[in-house]
Design a protein that fits this description.
By secondary structure, the protein is an alpha+beta fold. The protein has helices spanning about 25-30, 40-70, 95-105, and strands at about 1-5, 20, 35-40, 75-80, 90-95, 115, 120, 125-135, 135-145. The protein folds into 2 domains: about 1-65, Ribosomal Protein L9, domain 1 (3-Layer(aba) Sandwich), CATH 3.40.5; about 65-145, Ribosomal protein L9, C-terminal domain (Ribosomal Protein L9, domain 2, Roll), CATH 3.10.430.
Length: about 150
């Protein structure tokens, strides 16, 4: 019997997956507990619509990520910080500060964990790798000054 799973079931499949099981297992265990539904025409149509919706959402996310990558590629973000007489900072510039400045200066909002930053503890220009999306990375620069 073909069924569509409503939940992840160990050793059987993941939510939304179409699987073949024995009639007894489906009728006595999966269907009464609402862990699955019979794969009739209506359920198959819903499954196809969900898959199409997920694919569209993924395409839109990837397109947005590529636009953000094009905006940030090669750009320099300016960060101000206090330093001592020798140009050494009181503390360091963090990915959180960089994320805030990128949002402020370029209008691109990304999580702070997407910025791969070396230890910035002095004035200067530093390279930063931005992981915009899975498989999309760009190089940008951080200019630290007074």
């Amino acid at each position: 019997m073909q069924i569509i799973l409503n939940q992840d079931i160990k050793d059987l499949g993941k939510k939304g997956q179409l699987v073949n099981v024995s009639d007894g297992y489906a009728k006595n265990y999966l269907l009464p507990r609402k862990l699955a539904v019979i794969a009739d025409a209506g359920a198959m149509n819903q499954l196809k619509n969900r898959e199409a919706s997920a694919a569209h959402k993924l395409a839109v996310e990837k397109e947005t990520a590529q636009k953000n990558a094009d905006i940030l590629s090669g750009k320099t973000v300016k960060v101000t910080a206090n330093a001592g007489a020798n140009g050494r900072l009181f503390g360091s510039v963090t990915s959180k500060e960089i994320a805030e400045k990128v949002k402020e200066q370029f209008g691109v909002e990304l999580e702070k964990k997407r910025y791969v930053v070396e230890d910035i503890r002095a004035y200067g220009v530093y390279p930063v790798t931005v992981k915009v999306y899975n498989g999309i990375q760009v190089q940008m620069f951080v200019s630290v000054g007074a």
